[in-house]
Amino acid sequence: MAKHSPKRILYVENGIGYGGAVICLRHLVRNLDPNAFEAMVVTGRTGPEYRTIAEDAHWRHITDHHIDVVRIHRELDPSAWPDRVPGLRFIINQILARADDLANFLPFFLALLHTARQFKADLIHSNNEPLCNRAALLTGKILGIPTVAHVRGSQQGSRLMRQAYGLADCFIPVSHWIAASMQEKLAIPEDKIRVVYDGIELEKLELFKGREQFRETYNLKDDDFAVGLVGLLIPWKGQQLFLDAAQLLKNRIPRLKMLIIGGTPDDCAGYEKALKTRVKEQGLSDWVIFTGHLNGMATAYNGLDVVVSASTGPEPLGTVVIETMTLARPLVGPNHGGAAEMMEHNVTGLLFEPGNAHDLADKIETFYRQPELRQQLGEAARNKALQTFSVTTHVDQIQSIYNELLTS
After folding, report:
1. 202-388, CATH topology level
2. What is the pLDDT of residues 388-405, one digit of tens each?
3. What is the pLDDT of residues 145-157, one digit of tens each?
4. pTM of the predicted model as reported, rounded to 2 decimal places
5. How far apart are the C-alpha atoms of 383 and 74, rounded to whole Å?
């Protein structure tokens, strides 16, 4: 009986930076059945972390931003001067949109199409939203091969977003909350949706490993109470809210340390600067620590007394939640989106009212006052995570979707 060659899967990652989505993608390609599938990963961004993807799969960088339109919008949108001339803001936005199409989207799309042809891809899997990955989905349409779109965020329902969602053959939302949002806002047919929780290589996340090393690195004493917000430094991750809570807690919790853990995408450098300026101006330097990007996140989680997820908008199901639960760490999360779907209040973590710094501070203080609650909820969270987030289960479900599309 003839042996079939592995099917070639082209993954396209066009997210804002190296975060949970990329980490979960790496877990996936690393654990694919090599006899059934061969993987290539294309990323729109590069850097030391991205280059290590080549350890797990074929990897190619194709830049997706020759002109940083996002940064321009971030600086321009709050400005008042474009509104002084009727219609000027509309004209500027149209110019920026066309510049984005010509300088960013078109070169990326053409290079990706060439790469897909060279690789002889059998299926294309976009690792983020269909809108930012529409080049991947269009490539699939042109080549006449199936396309899969991971969905990790909310849908605003714009016309362009609706068009992008119309390109994919199958969607993989990372939580049931996302699936419901897709159906409600964009009327995506249920038969095109397969909810698959992200998978984590649980056996590589060791309890308590590296705790002392992490605390020594950031000069954390044994009796310091270390609270960490983990995530890329982008506004919706809630770092400003975290600093609001630090102001409220600095005189309520002795030896408090509030750590902001995560790297900064290039187009958010101004946001990082604003956060550090605020810490200095408000006299929070004795309490707040910025770590920057860290490798080996288990060490950071284990070094913290409490982990916080504080996204100001509903997040699909952040890697922070998954990894924190797996490591049995006390977790405080917002009562919306994927965190609320996965965490049960006062059973596997503490939920706070989204955007409410006072409630966030109260939940952190609750954990400080009740060390036995930290242990109890952490253990319950780990038990749930071990049952839910196995990378083997994740990969099996994804491969099943591939087989379904490739044989239909």
Report:
1. Rossmann fold (3.40.50)
2. 888 888 999 999 999 999
3. 999 999 987 676 5
4. 0.71
5. 42
